[in-house]
Amino acid sequence: MSEGGGEGAPERGGLRAALGGLTTRGRSFLAAGLAAVVCSYLLGQADLLRVGLLLAALPLVCVLVLERTRYRVAGSRTLSPARVPAASEARVRLRMENISRLPTGVLMLQDRVPYVLGPRPRFVLDRVEAGGRREVSYRVRSDLRGRYPLGPLQLRLSDPFGMCELTRAFSSVDTLTVVPRVEPLPPVRLAGDAAGYGDGRQRSLALAGEDDLIPREYRHGDDLRRVHWRSTARYGELMVRREEQPQKARCTVLLDTRGIAYPGAGPDSAFEWAVTGAASTAVHLLERGFSVRLLTDTGTSVPGPDSAGSFAGGAESAEAVGLLLDTLAVVDHSEEEGLSAAYDLVRGGNEGLLIAFFGDLDEEQAAVAGRMRQRSSAAVAFVLDGDAWMRGPGGIRFSGGQVPVAERLRLLRRAGWTALPVTPGEALADLWRAAADRAAAEPQRSAETGAPETAAGGWS
């Protein structure tokens, strides 16, 4: 059998592999034939020899014919969609086309899929006429994030007598990407919008003064009120001032991936909640025009396509969302013990809005996280309540936490963070709204107590 389409050429195993494809019926016929030949020799029965040769020759002829059969079959696979959220289904369509001049026999079609996606799908295709095609489909679903290979596609051929079955595998493999779920977040804002963030975005002029002016040539349709006459006289042609350029609102989403900071495993674990939270936050801000950078505790900054290494929001957000979700689909626990690597990267520049998803923090790491606040105009932290996540059904406590969550929140809030605890079953949308309410109340509390007011950035 040969192939002529999208799946690649099926692998051929040769005559030895074909003999290994003898079915139970074929092996029985071969054994019976050999036994009859031996008995005819011992008993001197010529008729028994002819019967034995017939029984032994039949499966061997079927093997030879099946191995030499030159079916030309084109196979293809289509994923719809190729990127799917966790716990959602994707449809896989398989298409087989007989592009030879001979009809095929009965074909059994099997696609290899990882066990987390379900059982291997198998289909029996009746005789496919010359030039004919068959389409079948199946569904896959995974509760776990990741990239999962689908394929290669396998065809099993059988002779009309059922003596031999041969398996041919195509070479092509497709990939299904299971990304974190994205929860919709309410359009809320922190109080005290800083210039350059949220609705209070700063607009920076392309000129700092008359001497620093960098004009451009007049273009048809430009407003004549923008003509810069001094440059026009200098260059001898109409020159206009550059337009004001909006400054992008920036945000850094920090995801704590330390393995020691998260209890449990599985789709309902604390770590999966944090990954889902980071994905939902990044998508929410990208859709609202923010330039988003994804950062982990290892100091790894996922490089974005813009000049600042971030993912641009606005009109290009659809592509940026896909890239971020693909990255978060494969993020896993790190072996880091602290947040120092992330702090070294954060302190190198103005982070704008900083939103962090922290696992279990001890006092030292809470202090490191507190220092990150200095390089941001506003900072929001969702902190895992490890004691709550370590309780099983019925409130049974499996192990002890490190530092009580109230103490960790106090340390972060004292450093200027808007910090909230995260318990099992907590909805991110509710925490998002609570963070906005708390941020709005903090300046008022600072004014009432006479404490210095920390800067807060706008977000929506």
From TrEMBL:
Top-level lineage group: Bacteria
Low complexity: bias regions: 447-460
Positions of the UniProt region annotated as Disordered: 439-460
Domain DUF58: 216-299
InterPro entries: DUF58
UniProt protein name: DUF58 domain-containing protein
Organism: Streptomyces decoyicus
